[in-house]
Amino acid sequence: MARNQKLKVSKIIELVVRSNRPLTSQQIAEALSLDTSTTNRLLNSMAEDGLLRKDRKTRTFHPAAAALFPLPLFHPLSTSAEKIWSAVLQLRNEWSLTAGFVYFYGDERILAALAMGVDPLTSQYNTILTSPIHASGSGKLLLASKPESRWKSLLGPIPLHQFTPRTTTDLKALEREIKSGIENGFITCQDDYIEGFTVVSSPVSLRKRIIGCFFISGRSENLNEKGITEIGLSLSKRSSLFELSNPALSDFESLFI
Fold it and tell me: Which residue of 10, 12, 69, 102 is most buried, as measured by CB atoms within 10 A?
């Protein structure tokens, strides 16, 4: 299969998996700006190969089971899911705010669990987080997990883009902020990306290497009312307990090279 065609197949699978309803060939072609006849041919071929399911009555396409459930039952990410979800629920119930857990996989941030709280902004979260690295808690901790020699390639041009008056745009200031956060056990992003929205994140480590984070997010006024420092200390404690009580973390090591 030619590289261009592989890319189209990949984008089709991603689109169909992300959709909350079956899609027609026309909808897929329009969403991806593809030629209609090419899309029809690709979709039918993908259905024959078991990459998609085709409903012949409605002429719509669904993701195949393998696309929805790609991990083996005893994959490390599967076996740890229950403990992660339990920890996230406890955080949400403790603070009545949105809580979650993020893995760092390569240079990407994968949202593994999310328990919605009282704020209305949780719908902005996707499985693969796209919030700016320098203006998000998970992004700053992702940087902390990497050698500083890699930061510029991850961040892009300096000065960094300013989303709000609170956004850190200077590289040295960002370095100091991340270093201080690691020493405290949590990083706070208050109005950095969206005014009125705050995220507090605490790193989870494996053999002293950061592989992800727990976070609590919500309206800045709600987090201020609860006490950001208290939330951060609670997150840091949860991260430490998770590392100690989850021996399956050792199975992750090969995933986060």
Answer: 102
